[in-house]
Amino acid sequence: MPTPPREPQPAHRPTVYFDGACPVCRREIAVYQRGAGAEAVCWVDASACPPEALGGDLPREQALARLHLRQADGRLVRGAAAFLAMWTALPQHPGLARLARVLDRPALVRLLDLAYGGFLRLRRLWRPAR
Predict the structure, then answer these.
(1) Residue 25: CB partners within 8 Å, gap ≥ 6?
(2) Structure pTM?
């Protein structure tokens, strides 16, 4: 007996995990969320979501420490690489997608991560205590 045709699986979208308790982070993510095509990405506020929304491989403390993005294939990227992946996934920002492709070089990503690390040290001043 032939197997019945399977229903197509829903397309998986990248998921961005951000710190909604950080005022700077919240404002930046809001800019991306307001743009046309923002539904191409799932947005998860790691400061307010249930633990299962983060997945078993992303502890809340890690999710709050820096931006993370889960690719549609399940791979988790963090820091500068997560920003580049997010920019690539947002159709309303073609300039950012082009910039992400230019910057997506191992040496540049490491340099961007160093700069992001500097921002994260300053961010502690703006984020309420956990």
Answers:
(1) 18, 19, 67, 123
(2) 0.83
